[in-house]
Design goal:
about 260 residues; alpha+beta; 8 helices
Length: about 260
């Protein structure tokens, strides 16, 4: 749940300009020093002793210890009673879960679809499994100079002839009988499904899967265009751009 900001509330000095934050507004140095120490601990692959951590941070051992005491009280750091080494604490897990809960996959995918539509000059959309079948829920058209295809939000895609439907069929468990085993293996291996006029004559489409934190298929990101402007190439630039976008969405939601 996002915090409510009321009109009378202030997030900084009255004289501070929003454009100045955070680089040009003086902060609290001790907080920044403590966070830098914590970051150096978190960046390590294993628990760290006090002397080693202080050396990494370039500070006196006693000073580092005082920061660690405060961090430990807040749950950001824990100390092994047997070895005396420090490691990141349970507050980090709670923060990560809180951050993940704030990530809206559809919002993230919609933003990527808008960027792709502008970059590729083609129609791009987001599809999810719905009650009636695989459904387009976000449709983004290219700007001036691009080639638009009439895809409406709420449009349904079959599992056999559409690239979007094939993505969902390829990862369906148990495997869908509506998609040939060889096609399923090829889509899963390449991480992309393409159609060349099979769904709508003269219209090509490329679709990629987006997975959640548990590795389950969450949605599909699809670009669609006229055969003259969009090549149905699973290794072409449009497919690579889709794959990169899908990876960014998955990474943002913990996938």
């Amino acid at each position: 749940m996002r915090p409510t900001v009321f009109p009378h509330e202030s997030i900084g000095p009255a004289s501070a300009d929003a454009g100045d934050w955070p680089g040009d507004v003086p902060g609290i140095q001790s907080v920044e020093v403590g966070l830098d120490l914590f970051r150096r601990l978190a960046d390590g692959e294993t628990p760290c002793g006090l002397s080693d951590l202080a050396r990494r941070a370039g500070m006196h051992r006693a000073k580092a210890y005082r920061y660690l005491v405060s961090l430990a009280r807040a749950g950001w750091v824990v100390q092994d009673a047997r070895t005396g080494r420090y490691d990141i604490g349970p507050a980090v897990r709670d923060l990560a879960l809180s951050w993940l809960s704030r990530q809206d996959p559809l919002r993230l995918a919609g933003a990527e679809a808008r960027a792709l539509a502008q970059m590729l000059g083609e129609t791009c959309f987001v599809a999810v499994p719905g009650q009636g079948g695989v459904t387009a829920v976000r449709v983004c058209q290219p700007g001036r100079g691009g080639v638009s295809v009439g895809v409406a939000e709420g449009a349904l895609f079959d599992l056999e002839s559409s690239a979007t439907g094939r993505v969902f069929a390829a990862w369906q468990d148990p495997p869908s009988r509506r998609l040939a085993a060889a096609a399923r293996r090829d889509i899963r291996s390449r991480g992309v499904a393409v159609v060349e006029g099979e769904h709508v004559p003269g219209i090509n489409a490329i679709s990629v899967p987006v997975f959640d934190a548990q590795g389950q298929l969450l949605l599909a990101l699809t670009v669609v265009g006229h055969a003259g402007s969009l090549r149905a190439d699973p290794d072409g630039p449009a497919a690579e751009a889709l794959r990169a976008a899908a990876r960014r969405i998955s990474a943002a939601i913990g996938g």
